[in-house]
Design goal:
The chain is of the alpha/beta class. Helices cover about 40% and strands about 15% of the residues. The site of one manganese (II) ion has 6 residues, from loops.
C-alpha cells in the first residue's frame, strides 16, 4: 500500500471510529502475542475515547499472555448489545476469526488492520502493510492519528505485539520503524524486562516436558534442508501440557543452523493437524502454507490440515519438495 493510500485509510478509519459508540474488536483463533497485543491495545484506546468495546476471540489468551491488560475480558461470543463497527486485527482473511466470522461480516462497517503477505483483505477500510513487523505497529500508527495518548497499559499491549512478532527483534521483518515504535512504547511505560519475562521465561514444567518430547522427535529431511518434529495427542496427555503450550517450540527448530525450513506438526483435539512453518528466507513459507490451505508471512506461516498425522506429513513434504526444487539448491547462485 502506498504512503498516500495508507494515510487515506487511517483517516477514513478515524472517521468511522469517531462516529461509532459501540465497537467489536476481534482477532484470529489461537491468538499469539501480536494478535492479543494489537487487539487489547486498540480496545483500551477506544475505551479512552469513550467507546464501548467488546474484545472477541474464539480462543482465550494463552497463560503466558494473561498479564496483558484486558486479557480476562476476551469473550468468544458477541455481546448482547449491537455495534456499529468491527475492527479485526492480525487476520489474513476474515475466516481467521473462526466461528466469529458471521458476527463481524454482519456489522454495518468493518476495518481490517493487518500485515500478512497474503492479500485476503476484507471490510470497507483496510489498513494493511506487509512490511510492518507486527500488526501492533499499524495500531500504533492509527492511535497517533486518533490522537489517543499512549499510557502504560496500551504501551504494554503494543510492545508485546512488536516483541513477539519480530522474534524479540531478531527476524527479518524487524525494521527501523519496529525499533523506533518499540522505543516510543518503552518511553510511554512498557517494561521490556517485565514483558520478556512474562512471555519467554515462565514456561511451566508440563510445557517444558512437551518441548523435550518435540526435540526428541527431531528429524532431518531432504538432505538436511528441512527439519521437523511432531506432537501427538498422547504427548499432551502424558505431560499435562495445554494445547497452547506449543508456542515457541518451533523457535527451537529454527535455531538449528543449516536447514532452510523447519516444520512442527501438532495433532489437535478435533483430529486436525496444525502445521507451523519457518523459513530461513530462501523459501517463501507463506506460499507453501497457502498451497496447503493456510497462510502467513514469508518466513513464518502455517496451515491446519484434515487427516492423519502421516497423511498430513506426506502432503506437507510433497509440497515442500516442489518449493525446494523451484528455489534450487541454497548453494546455487
Ligand atoms: P504459527 O506457526 O501458528 O505461529 O503461525 C505462523 C503464521 O502463520 C502466523 O502469521 C499465522 O497467522 C499463520 N497461520 C498459522 N496457521 C494458519 C492457518 N491455519 N491459516 C492461515 N494462516 C495461518
Ligand atoms: Mn498472529
Ligand atoms: Mn502479526
Amino acid at each position: 500500500m502506498s504512503a498516500r493510500k495508507a494515510t487515506q485509510a487511517r483517516n477514513r478509519a478515524t472517521q468511522l471510529i469517531r462516529s461509532s459508540k459501540d465497537v467489536l474488536v476481534g482477532t484470529h483463533l489461537r491468538p499469539d502475542g501480536d494478535a492479543l497485543g494489537s487487539m487489547l491495545g486498540l480496545a483500551l484506546a477506544l475505551e479512552k475515547m469513550g467507546i464501548r468495546v467488546a474484545r472477541l476471540c474464539v480462543d482465550p489468551a494463552p497463560a503466558a499472555y494473561s498479564f496483558l491488560p484486558g486479557a480476562e475480558e476476551i469473550g468468544g461470543e458477541p455481546p448482547p448489545w449491537s455495534a456499529q463497527l468491527g475492527m479485526v486485527v492480525d487476520c489474513d482473511g476474515l475466516s481467521r476469526v473462526g466461528a466469529l466470522e458471521p458476527v463481524f461480516a454482519s456489522l454495518p462497517r468493518l476495518i481490517d488492520i493487518d500485515h500478512h503477505a497474503t492479500d485476503r483483505v476484507f471490510g470497507e477500510v483496510q489498513i494493511t502493510d506487509v512490511t510492518a513487523g507486527a500488526c501492533a505497529e499499524l495500531v500504533f500508527d492509527l492511535l497517533h492519528v486518533l490522537h489517543v495518548p499512549l499510557d502504560e497499559e496500551i504501551a504494554t499491549c503494543l510492545y508485546t505485539g512488536v516483541l513477539t512478532d519480530t522474534g524479540r527483534f531478531t527476524y527479518g521483518n524487524t525494521t527501523p520503524t519496529s525499533l523506533s515504535i518499540a522505543a516510543e512504547l518503552v518511553r510511554a511505560g512498557a517494561k521490556p524486562n517485565f514483558i520478556a519475562r512474562k512471555v519467554y521465561a515462565e514456561r511451566s514444567i508440563a510445557a517444558t516436558h512437551l518441548l523435550g518430547i518435540a526435540l526428541s522427535r527431531l528429524l532431518a529431511h531432504f538432505g538436511g534442508q528441512v527439519v521437523s518434529a511432531t506432537l501427538t495427542r498422547a504427548d499432551f496427555t502424558s505431560t499435562g501440557a495445554a494445547s497452547t503450550d506449543t508456542e515457541g517450540i518451533i523457535d527451537h527448530l529454527r535455531a538449528i543452523g543449516g536447514p532452510r525450513v523447519a516444520v512442527l506438526f501438532v495433532q489437535a483435539e478435533n483430529g486436525e493437524v496444525r502445521v507451523s512453518l519457518r523459513s530461513d528466507g530462501t523459501i517463501d513459507a507463506s506460499s507453501v502454507a497457502l498451497a496447503l490451505g493456510g497462510g502467513g508471512h514469508a518466513m513464518a506461516a502455517g496451515c491446519t490440515c484434515q487427516g492423519s498425522l502421516d497423511g498430513v506429513r506426506d502432503r506437507v513434504f510433497a509440497e515442500l519438495e516442489k518449493w525446494l526444487v523451484t528455489a534450487g539448491s541454497p548453494d546455487a547462485s
